[in-house]
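Quick one: co-fold with adenosine-5'-triphosphate.
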Amino acid sequence: MSNRTFTMIKPDATSKGYTGAILDQIIKSGFSIKALKWTKLTPAQAGEFYAVHKERPFYGELVDYMSSGPIIAAILEKDNAVADFRKLIGATNPAQAEEGTIRKKFATSIAENAVHGSDSDENAMIEGDFFFSKLERF
Ligand code: ATP
Ligand code: MG
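Sure, here it is.
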């Protein structure tokens, strides 16, 4: 069990003005921010980040969406960070997400679902390294 995870606030949420509310909920849920960046992915970068989904039917749609507008990338710290953060964001499909979760409150659809959360300690490391240099984290 590691104490770090990685998140993105996705383009649907940043464009609707939910960035502040989502960060507020993350912090109030006990996560501390160890690195933070406001940026925009190129289609090539979005494709690389989600390469694990290359064979899925929604891959093209996912890459277009994730490069369609600005995102927030962040490294978060808390005990049991990966599992607790997945719980905080809720199910991939907001229609199935529990009441009070970030996706239930802020997501638009299964595709445009407001936030990303790492699914394992290993991927949290890989994803954090994708966005942040040593200088940008502590
Ligand atoms: P994320 O990895 O972004 O935290 P997740 O782990 O809940 O989400 P994944 O199965 O890893 O879900 O899917 C990655 C992303 O691909 C989803 O968050 C969503 O944006 C998109 N996606 C997943 N399933 C579908 C689908 N059936 N149709 C369209 N887009 C989808
Ligand atoms: Mg995932």
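If it helps, The longest strand covers residues 32-39.
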